[in-house]
Amino acid sequence: MKLFKFGLAALSVAVISATPFFAQAAQSISQAQIATTPPAFLQLEITSSCSDKGAVFKIINRGEKWPRTGFLRLYHADSKSMIGERRMRLAPGQKVSFVVKDKVSKGRPVAVWVEPEWYKRDFEFDARASCG
Length: 132
Known about the structure:
The protein has helices at 31-36, 102-105, and strands at 12-18, 42-50, 54-61, 70-76, 81-88, 95-101, 110-116, 127-129.
């Protein structure tokens, strides 16, 4: 069963911006780590909307090229149960769009969370949609 379909536009917007820890932070980081840390760790624009086929999500990387892969995870928002995931690595300005079809969401709200492998984020949905 294919969960993702690429294409389409969106309405509501969530912007993620995370900045790195530097040497003054409580957590110790070596000079080598600071030198390899990109200036913009994670800057994403994530939008969601509904279409006649299901919930539409669009992600745009507004920051630097990702240093490693990350996960795009889809959930049933009401129970926080995972529907599926994809590994990805985004270039600057790269866009990813997909549809969670109604037959997959089954009338329940769906949500997306982006988890990079190189940066620890607290679990919180980045965008959600209730369609159907």
